[in-house]
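Narrative of accomplishments. A recurring question from our advisory board has been how the design workflow behaves on a single, concrete structure rather than in aggregate. To address it, we present the structure tokens for one chain from the evaluation set, followed by the sequence designed for it. No filtering or post-editing was applied between the two.
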């Protein structure tokens, strides 16, 4: 786990500070990793990995506006995701489905989906920058950063791609699973979502390992009433 971090040191926008540390050592293929959907009750977990070019002088200018995806509006993510893809040397997106999450548990599922993302790259990176977590299964040197999506531009780019891809998929799935309001809640535990579970039960998109304690406990009863 990363060391404690002073939140006052978080810059207004993510920078290339951590990427440049590696680039200056001659390590050119540095990848940022992040995921979306870890805390939702339904839908897949999505991971993205982004490799930014080490020799672009105006990289931060090209990617101005990119930050932690949770701090961006849907319009900003939709606008900047194609920019990230066009600027990046390489990127990949990977998925972990709800039944896999139930089977593996979120801890292992998160590591596996990161492995899948990295394996989707054309060239294996020589260093990974990851938001908070480390992935021991990947035999690649790693730097795990507290608030990494607010500090590292590569991680922030991955955060945007993962969030944008997952949100779009949940919107598409909402047409198939009507009544759960996935187009609005994206699978997270909104009051409307909890009420729908109370009325309709769980569907195949729900993570039973996450939802069962809600169905059995007073918390779910209170929120769904």
């Amino acid at each position: 786990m990363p060391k404690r971090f002073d939140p006052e040191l978080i810059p207004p926008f993510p920078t290339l500070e951590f990427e440049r540390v590696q680039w200056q050592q001659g390590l050119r293929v540095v990848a940022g990793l992040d995921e979306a959907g870890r805390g939702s009750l339904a839908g897949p977990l999505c991971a993205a990995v982004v490799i930014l070019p080490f020799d672009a002088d105006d990289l931060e200018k090209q990617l101005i506006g990119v930050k932690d995806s949770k701090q961006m509006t849907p319009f900003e993510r939709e606008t900047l995701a194609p920019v990230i893809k066009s600027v990046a040397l390489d990127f990949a997106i990977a998925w972990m489905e709800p039944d896999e999450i139930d089977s593996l548990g979120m801890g292992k599922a998160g590591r596996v989906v990161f492995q899948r993302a990295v394996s989707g790259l054309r060239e294996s990176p020589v260093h990974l920058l990851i938001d908070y977590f480390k992935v021991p299964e990947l035999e690649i040197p790693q730097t795990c950063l507290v608030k990494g999506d607010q500090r590292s531009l590569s991680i922030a780019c991955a955060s945007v791609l993962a969030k944008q891809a997952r949100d779009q998929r949940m919107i598409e799935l909402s047409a198939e699973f009507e009544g759960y309001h996935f187009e609005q809640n994206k699978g997270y535990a909104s009051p409307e979502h909890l009420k729908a579970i109370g009325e309709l039960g769980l569907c195949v998109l729900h993570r039973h390992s996450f939802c069962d304690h809600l169905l059995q406990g007073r918390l779910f009863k209170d929120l769904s009433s």
